[in-house]
Amino acid sequence: MNTPRYGKMLFIIIMLSLISLACSLPALGQIQPDNSEPTFEAAYTVVAGLPSPAAATAVSGGALEANDSLVGEWQIFTVNTRFNSPSSIEEAQTWLGDVVQINPAGITYHGVFCLLGSLERSNLPSDYSERIGLNLNDFGIPESGTQWVETSCEGLPFAAFIQLNENTLVLQNQGSLLWLQKLAAESPKRPLVYSKLFLIKEDDFRSISIQIPSLASDSPNAQNYNTAVYELHTPWLTQFIQDTSTWALPPEPVTTFSDLSMDYKVHWNDGQRISILTSVYSYYAGAAHPNLNYLTINYDLNLSDTLLVNEIFVSGSDYLTFLHDHCAANLDARGIGYWEEGLTLDPITFHNFTFTQKGLAIHFDPYQVAPYAAGPQTVLIPYTDLNGWLKPEYIPTVP
């Protein structure tokens, strides 16, 4: 064999193969980078403890900046429902404690993920209360300083919501208001408030639906609060059952059905103090009209004790005269024909009060300070007017 000739032929064969391979490849200028979006599955990582997957931080872009106050974990800590039916109340309670994750890419909540294509902030629109089923004034929350947020999550609870401040959101879902607190080291740790429900349905006789605002915590102080609020509400239930069991119907009554219902609004909850207004609606078969009464509880979770009106004012101050004069001037300006005799200088006159963001709210039942036709009355006293009267520790800061 001629070795030099064989080596030369092998070299030629290898070179021809390389040239053929090169011709089969595209030119460098024709190679395009892979800019495709990550797959739906790749955009998620499963987070333990959540009922749904959380949007992965690896997904970039979106409608929010990474340092936006909305970005982070949020927890639903209070739920209110407008529909006082067992199914509505129980369904609303399933949201309580849920963790919501908001990041620049989207929102994950209650087993649902919404991709944030857009997000816009503005001042509250004039029709916000109709759109979300909430009037902030009913909770003593100022409308100024809040933000209306609209997103591309159409048809979902996060399509439009209110950001009260950097630590609190409120949104509407199927007639229920969901209140969210931010889960961050610097944010207040507010206890979950749930409805302890009592239901009695007796056809053509009476109906009872009571929501007692209870704390979902095993701590001794929270349990002491639960005992106090239970003892505040249940006498109304006991009395109603006794009354209707022996109730004598008038001749030819319009209806033979009696009804008792209670629902509540949380006016203040900063993790240290909780302030709640309960509305008690009652109707006795054959009566001319239903009745409304207020119950309030103001509870200091640090002291593990209920706060009474005489305990929140500076010792030795003539707080009863201060409250009387302020309420009298306010009620008189309403032109409702208020009853001066209803504003006696007695702590029991002003025992229904709640702390709110705007100030101290004093609540009066119908017939207490005005005719029934005027309805219940609430007088709000701004904290600026309470300086020197209210003990400094009871002038709250916004949670």
Quick recap:
The protein is α+β, with helices and mostly antiparallel strands. The protein has 3 domains: 41-182, no CATH class; 192-245 and 253-305, Fervidobacterium nodosum Rt17-B1 like (Heat Shock Protein 90); 308-399, Actin, Chain A, domain 4 (Alpha-Beta Complex). 20% of the residues lie in helices and 31% in strands.
Short key terms for the protein model shown above:
3 domains, Heat Shock Protein 90, 6 helices, 31% strand, nine-stranded antiparallel sheet, single chain, 20% helix, Actin, Chain A, domain 4, alpha+beta, 399 residues, six-stranded mixed sheet
Descriptive notes:
The protein contains 6 helices and 20 strands. It has 399 residues and is an alpha+beta fold. The longest helix is centred in the middle third of the chain and has 26 residues, at 220-245. The chain is globular and about 65 Å long. The model is unreliable at 1-61 (pLDDT under 50). The protein has helices spanning 3-23, 86-93, 128-132, 220-245, 319-333, 383-386; strands spanning 44-45, 54-55, 72-81, 99-103, 106-109, 112-115, 119-122, 147-151, 160-165, 168-173, 176-182, 193-202, 206-215, 258-269, 273-283, 291-300, 305-306, 353-355, 359-364, 377-382. The protein has a 9-stranded antiparallel β-sheet. The protein starts with a helix and ends in a 13-residue tail after the last helix. Strand 15 and strand 16 (291-300) form a beta hairpin. It has 3 domains: 41-182, no CATH class; 192-245 and 253-305, Heat Shock Protein 90 (2-Layer Sandwich); 308-399, Heat-shock cognate protein, ATPase (Actin, Chain A, domain 4, Alpha-Beta Complex).
